[in-house]
Write a structure and sequence with these properties.
The complex is a heterotrimer. Chain A is mainly α. Chain A is 75% helix and 0% strand. Chain A folds into two domains: 87 residues, no CATH class; 195 residues, MetI-like fold (Orthogonal Bundle), CATH 1.10.3720.10. Chain C has ten helices and twelve strands. The chains are: A mainly alpha, B mainly alpha, C alpha/beta. Bound molecules: adenosine-5'-triphosphate, iron/sulfur cluster (SF4) and magnesium ion. The site of iron/sulfur cluster (SF4) has 13 residues of chain C, from loops. Chain B: Keywords: Cell membrane, Membrane, Transmembrane, Transmembrane helix, Transport.
C-alpha cells in the first residue's frame, strides 16, 4: 500500500512543476512588475532600471523562475500592487473563509447524496427513485450561478431568511457562541445551494452500485451464511457501492474550488474566489498568480487525496 | 449440442467480412426521441427560442443597444421599452434578444470546436492505445485539474484585441478534454470488436478503420456529447459574462443581463432586468439537457441489447 | 438398509416458478427427491434444466417477490417452504452450507478471507472473537490451505482460483452443516484443481457425514464421486438411480444422450446418437405432456406417454415414461 501511495505522490511532483512553470509564464505575460505596488511614481527612470537589475528582472527566464520558486518555498508570494501588503497575508484570512465554506458544502452534499443514492437504488424505478431522478435532473441542469442568484434573491432578499453578504454581521452580539452561530447563518445558504447542485454524480454512482451489487455472487454467499438481510445490505451491498464514490472525492473538491469564484461573488462572501474577482478588477496580478497557483495545487492535491483514499479502501488497488 | 454453453452465440465471419451491425445509432436514437412527448415539446420550444432570438435580432435597432443616459433606469412596460432599460438606457428586451442569440452561437461554436478536437484525439488515443494513449491521457488529466475558470478570466484581461472569437477559442481550449476522454472510452471498447478486427485483417488502413468503421459506431455517443456540450458551454459562457469577463461589454450575453443581479438594488427592486434572462437560460438549459438524457437513454438501451 | 433417521431432506412435489411478464413459469416442476446422511447425490442436466433453481429453493435464496415456491422441503420435520426469514437465517449456514460455481465472484472483494469465514461463525456459534479466530485458522487448515494465518489476512484477489474455492468450502462447512449444496463447484477451475476440490469434498464428508447435493455438468465427476444421480430435464427429474446402475443401465433417452456426449463411456449401444437442440427457455417450456418429446421428433407418436410419470424399475432406479422398453435412437 505504501508503495502505491508513494508512487502516486511522485506522479504529482512533475504535475506541480509543470503547473508552476505554466503559471510563471502566465504571470510574465501580465502587465506590471514587482515594483508596481511599491514605487513612488516620482521615482526617476534610472533608479527603476537599477532596481530592476537588482531584483533580477533582467536575468534569463529560467533564473527568474528558479528565484520565484525559491521565494515560494519561503512563503513569499510577492507584494500586492494595490493593497500595500504581502500576498501571503492577504490570502491568509480569505483562505480560511473558503475552507469553511467548502467543508460545510462537502458535508452537506454527502449528507443529501448518500441517502438519496441509497433510496434510489433500493427502490429502483419505483416512485422514490423517480422523484430523486427528477430532483437530480433539476439540480444537474441548472447553471451554478443561476442557482446562486435565484437562491440569494428568494431566500436572502424576498424572504429575508438569510444574510445576503459577508461571513459575519457587523452587529453580532458578543460571545463566541453567538459568533459561531452568526457565521453559520452566513455560510448555510451558499453551502446548501452548492451542495444541492453537486449531488448528481454521487447519487447516480451509488444508485447503480447498489443495483448492480445486489445481484453479485458474494451477496448471495453472505445470504447463504445466514446473515440477516439488514446486515447483508449494510456490510456487503452498501459498503461495496460506496467505493466508487470515494474515488470521486477529488473531483468534488475540484468542482467546489472551481465554483468558489462564482459562489463567493454572488453571496459577497470574502473568500479566495471573491479575492480573485477583486484582484482581477484592479489588475492586481501578483495576487492573481498566487491564487491560480494555489487553486491548481489544491486541485492536484485533491486528486491525490482521492487516489490515496481509494488505495486505502480498495484492497485490489493496493497490491498492484 | 448438449453441454456446450459457449457455442450458443458464436457467429464467425468467413474471409473477414464485417458482421452486420445493429441499425445505426442515429436512427435508433431519433426513434426514441419521437416516442417521448416532452422531448418533442422541448425541441419545439428550443426552435421557438432560436427563431425569437435569431429573427428578433434582425429587428433590434442599433440605437436600442446604445448607451443613452436620458432613457436610463426605465421600469418594465414603459412605452417603447417592454422590459425597461438599464442604467445606461439600453433596452432590456433588445439586450435579451441579442444576448440570447450570442450565447447560443457561442455555445454551439465552442461545442463544435471542442467536439471535433475531442473526437480526433479520443479516436487516436483509444484506437492506438499504448504510449500514445498514455501521453494524451496525461495531458488531459493535467488540463482538467487546472483552475480553468480563473485562467480564462486572467487571459481575457491580458489578450490584446479580445473579442467574441477569442472567447470561443479560450473556452474550447479547456472543454475538449472531457469530450476526448468520453470518446476514448467508447473507442477502446470498439477496438476489440469483431468488425474492427475483421477490417484490420483485410488490410484497411488505420485511418480508414477509424473513420469508416469506428466513427459511425459511436455516432449516438457523439450526438449525446454534442447536445449536452451545448448546454454546458452556454453555461460556461454565460457564467463568465455574468462575472463581467466573458463577452466584451459591447456584445450582450444572457450572462451580462443576469450579471445585473450582482447589484443589490437591481436584484431586489428591478427583477425585470435580470429575471427574463434567467428564465430564458433556464429554459434553454433544461430543454437541451432533457433531450440529451433521452438520447442517453436510447443509447444505453441499444448497448444493453 | 438405512435407518429412517438418516433422512436429511425429503423434497416432495416441489414447484419453483419465476414471474416473467406477470405470469409464473415453473423452472422446477414437481420434483421429489431425498437426501440421506453420508450420501453424495449428483444432479445433472443441461444448462437451463433447473438445477440451480432447485438448490436455491432448498436454501431459500430467491427473490421473494418474483418467485413462487410450492410443495414441501422437509428438513427434520421442518418445512423449509414458506419458512419465515429469521428462522431460515438460523438454518442457512448452520444446517445447510452452499458452495458456488465462481469462487472469485462469490467472495466479497473488500473483506479479508478470515472475516468472511468469521461472519458465519458470528451468527451461528457462541464462540467469542478469539475463539472464532482460532476456528477460522482450523477451518483453513482443514480445507488444505497452507499458512492459514497469512491467508486469513489476505483478500480474495490475492488467491488462486483453487484456493478461493477452498475458502468457499471453509465458509460452507464452518458451522458443520448436515447438508452441503455444491452448485458446479469445479466448473470454473483447472482440471487438476478440480480433482483436488472433489477429493476435499469427499474427505469432508468422511469427517462430518454430511449429505451433499452435487450439481454438475461433468459426468466424469459424477461417476467418480456420486452415490446416486438424478437427471433433470426442463425442471423435471427424468431419471434417478444409484450411480453404477445409471452408468450401466441408463433408461431414459435423455440420460442416454447425456452419457453418449460424454467421452469414453462404455455404453454399448451402437445406435446411440447425440440429440440436437437445447432446453427451451422458461417461457417457452411446455407445461403438460412429455417435455422431451420435441427433442426426439422421430419417435413414433404412439409410444409417448400422455403425462409421463416416474416408474420404479428396480429398487432406487426410477425413470419417467415406459418408453425405454421400445426406444431406439435415430441414426
Ligand atoms: N431469477 C430468475 N428469474 C427468471 N428466470 C430464471 C431465474 N433463474 C433462473 N431462471 C430460468 O429458469 C430456468 C432454469 O435455470 P437454472 O439456473 O436453474 O438452470 P441450471 O440447470 O442451473 O443451468 P446452468 O447449468 O446454466 O446453471 C432457466 O430457463 C432460467 O432462465
Ligand atoms: S417416449 Fe416417453 S420420455 Fe420419450 S418423449 Fe415420449 S413421453 Fe417423453
Ligand atoms: Mg446453474
Amino acid at each position: 500500500m505504501w508503495k502505491t501511495i508513494l508512487r502516486r505522490v511522485l506522479v504529482m511532483i512533475p504535475q506541480i512543476i509543470i503547473l508552476s512553470i505554466l503559471i510563471f509564464f502566465l504571470a510574465k505575460m501580465m502587465p506590471g512588475d514587482p515594483f508596481t505596488g511599491l514605487i513612488d511614481p516620482k521615482m526617476d527612470v534610472n533608479t527603476i532600471a537599477k532596481l530592476k537589475q537588482e531584483y533580477g528582472l533582467n536575468d534569463a527566464p529560467w533564473v527568474q523562475y528558479l528565484n520565484w520558486v525559491k521565494n515560494l518555498f519561503r512563503g513569499d508570494l510577492g507584494m500586492s500592487y494595490t493593497q500595500h501588503m504581502s500576498v501571503t497575508s492577504l490570502i491568509g484570512d480569505r483562505a480560511q473563509n473558503t475552507f469553511w465554506l467548502s467543508l460545510v458544502t462537502i458535508i452537506l452534499s454527502y449528507l443529501f447524496a448518500i441517502p438519496m443514492g441509497i433510496i434510489a437504488g433500493r427502490y429502483k424505478d419505483k416512485w422514490p427513485d423517480q422523484t430523486i431522478r427528477i430532483f437530480n435532473y433539476i439540480t444537474f441542469a441548472i447553471p451554478g450561478f443561476v442557482a446562486y442568484v435565484l437562491a440569494l434573491w428568494l431566500f436572502g432578499y424576498l424572504l429575508n431568511w438569510f444574510p445576503t453578504t459577508g461571513t459575519v454581521s457587523v452587529s453580532v452580539a458578543p460571545g463566541i457562541f453567538n459568533y459561531i452561530l452568526d457565521r453559520a447563518h452566513h455560510i448555510i445558504l451558499p453551502a446548501l445551494v452548492a451542495a444541492l447542485i453537486s449531488t448528481t454524480t454521487t447519487v447516480q454512482y451509488l444508485r447503480t452500485g447498489i443495483i448492480d451489487n445486489q445481484v453479485e455472487d458474494y451477496v448471495r454467499t453472505a445470504r447463504s451464511k445466514g446473515v440477516p438481510e439488514r446486515v447483508v445490505f449494510n456490510k456487503h451491498i452498501l459498503r461495496n457501492s460506496l467505493l466508487p464514490i470515494t474515488a470521486f472525492i477529488g473531483n468534488v473538491i475540484g468542482a467546489l474550488l472551481g465554483g468558489a469564484v462564482m459562489i463567493e461573488t454572488v453571496f459577497s462572501y470574502p473568500g479566495m474566489g471573491k479575492l480573485f474577482m477583486e484582484s482581477i478588477s484592479q489588475r492586481d496580478y501578483p495576487v492573481l498568480t498566487a491564487l491560480i497557483l494555489m487553486f491548481g495545487i489544491l486541485a492536484i492535491v485533491g486528486n491525490l487525496i482521492s487516489d490515496i483514499v481509494m488505495t486505502i479502501v480498495d484492497p485490489r488497488i493496493r497490491v498492484k | 449440442m448438449l453441454f456446450n454453453k459457449a457455442n450458443k452465440q458464436n457467429i464467425k465471419t468467413e474471409a473477414g467480412e464485417p458482421i452486420s451491425l445493429p441499425p445505426s445509432g442515429f436512427k435508433l436514437v431519433l426513434k426514441e426521441l419521437l416516442k417521448d412527448k416532452f422531448a418533442i415539446f422541448s425541441i419545439l420550444v428550443l426552435v421557438l427560442i432560436l427563431l425569437f432570438t435569431f429573427l428578433g435580432s434582425a429587428f433590434v435597432s442599433k440605437e436600442s443597444l446604445d448607451t443613452n443616459i436620458l432613457d436610463g433606469l426605465m421600469p418594465a412596460f414603459s412605452s417603447g421599452h417592454f422590459l425597461g432599460t438599464d442604467e445606461g438606457g439600453k433596452d432590456i428586451l433588445s439586450l435579451l434578444i441579442v444576448g440570447g442569440r450570442n450565447s447560443i452561437v457561442i455555445g454551439i461554436s465552442v461545442t463544435a470546436i471542442s467536439i471535433i478536437l475531442g473526437l480526433v484525439i479520443g479516436l487516436i488515443s483509444g484506437y492506438f492505445g499504448g504510449v500514445v494513449d498514455d501521453i494524451f491521457m496525461r495531458i488531459i488529466d493535467f488540463i482538467m485539474v487546472l483552475p480553468r475558470f480563473m485562467i480564462i478570466i486572467i487571459l481575457t484581461t491580458i489578450i490584446s484585441n479580445y473579442n467574441a472569437f477569442t472567447l470561443i477559442l479560450l473556452i474550447s481550449l479547456f472543454s475538449w478534454t472531457s469530450s476526448a476522454r468520453y470518446f476514448r472510452s467508447f473507442v477502446l471498447a470498439q477496438r476489440e470488436r469483431e468488425y474492427v478486427m475483421a477490417s484490420k485483417a483485410s488490410g484497411s488502413s488505420n485511418v480508414a478503420i477509424m473513420f469508416r468503421e469506428v466513427l459511425p459506431n459511436i455516432s449516438s455517443m457523439i450526438i449525446i456529447d454534442v447536445v449536452l456540450g451545448i448546454a454546458g458551454n452556454i453555461g460556461i459562457e454565460t457564467g463568465l459574462s455574468f462575472l463581467g469577463y466573458g463577452l466584451p461589454a459591447s456584445t450582450p450575453s444572457l450572462g451580462t443581463l443576469i450579471g445585473y443581479a450582482n447589484d443589490p438594488v437591481n436584484i431586489m427592486s428591478r427583477p425585470w432586468v435580470w429575471l427574463p434572462a434567467v428564465v430564458m437560460l433556464l429554459i434553454i438549459s433544461y430543454m437541451i439537457n432533457y433531450v440529451g438524457t433521452v438520447f442517453q437513454r436510447a443509447a444505453d438501451a441499444r448497448q444493453r441489447r | 438398509m438405512e435407518k429412517p433417521s438418516d433422512l436429511l431432506l425429503d423434497i416432495q412435489h416441489l414447484h419453483t416458478g419465476f414471474r416473467l411478464k406477470g405470469k409464473f413459469y415453473d423452472a422446477v416442476d414437481d420434483v421429489s427427491l431425498t437426501l440421506r446422511k453420508n450420501e453424495i447425490l449428483a444432479i445433472v442436466g443441461e444448462s437451463g434444466s433447473g438445477k440451480s433453481t432447485l438448490a436455491s429453493s432448498i436454501i431459500g435464496l430467491y427473490d421473494q417477490k418474483n418467485t413462487r415456491v410450492r410443495g414441501d422441503i422437509l428438513f427434520n420435520e421442518l418445512n423449509l417452504v414458506g419458512l419465515n426469514e429469521s428462522l431460515f437465517n438460523r438454518i442457512r449456514g448452520k444446517e445447510i452450507g452452499m458452495i458456488f460455481q465462481d469462487p472469485l465472484a462469490a467472495l466479497n472483494p473488500l473483506m479479508r478471507i478470515g472475516a468472511q469465514i468469521e461472519e458465519t461463525l458470528y451468527y451461528h456459534t457462541k464462540l467469542n472473537e478469539k475463539e472464532r479466530k482460532t476456528r477460522v485458522l482450523e477451518l483453513l487448515d482443514q480445507v488444505g490451505i497452507p499458512d492459514p494465518v497469512r491467508i486469513s489476512r489476505q483478500y480474495p484477489h490475492e488467491l488462486s482460483g483453487g484456493m478461493r474455492q477452498r475458502v468457499i468450502i471453509a465458509i460452507a462447512i464452518a458451522d458443520k452443516p448436515s447438508i452441503l449444496l455444491a452448485d458446479e463447484p469445479t466448473t470454473a477451475l483447472d482440471v487438476t484443481i478440480q480433482a483436488q476440490i472433489l477429493d476435499l469434498l469427499k474427505d469432508i464428508q468422511d469427517e462430518t457425514s454430511a449429505g451433499i447435493i452435487l450439481i454438475t455438468h461433468d459426468l466424469g465427476v459424477v461417476s467418480e464421486t456420486a452415490d446416486r444421480v438424478a437427471v433433470m430435464y426442463a425442471g423435471q427429474i427424468v431419471e434417478v438411480a444409484p450411480v453404477d446402475e445409471l452408468f450401466t443401465n441408463p433408461l431414459h433417452p435423455y440420460t442416454r444422450s447425456l452419457l453418449e456426449s460424454m467421452p469414453q463411456t462404455d455404453v454399448d449401444d451402437e445406435e446411440l446418437h447425440v440429440i440436437e437442440g437445447t432446453v427451451p427457455s422458461l417461457d417457452k417450456m411446455m407445461t403438460d405432456g412429455c417435455r422431451f418429446a420435441p427433442r426426439i421428433p422421430w419417435i413414433d407418436a404412439t409410444s409417448h406417454e400422455e403425462e409421463p410419470i416416474l416408474h420404479e424399475v428396480s429398487p432406487g432406479h426410477e425413470v419417467r415414461c415406459t418408453c425405454y422398453r421400445d426406444f431406439y435412437f435415430k441414426n
